[in-house]
Amino acid sequence: MINHLMLRSSGKPSIWEKRPLPRLQADGRHLTPNRWLWPLTWLAALFFAFVWALALLSYLLPPFELYHNLLHGELTPNQFRFLAVGSTLLFIEFMFARHLFCRFGCAVGLFQSLAWMGNDRGMVVGFDKQRARECSNCNNACENVCPMRLKPRSIKRRMFTCTECAQCISACEQVQSFQSDITLLKWVLDEEAIAVTGADDGREPSGKENAPDPSGKDSEK
Ligand code: SF4
Ligand code: SF4
Question: How far is the CA of 207 from the centre of ligand 1 (A)?
Answer without folding.
Answer: 24
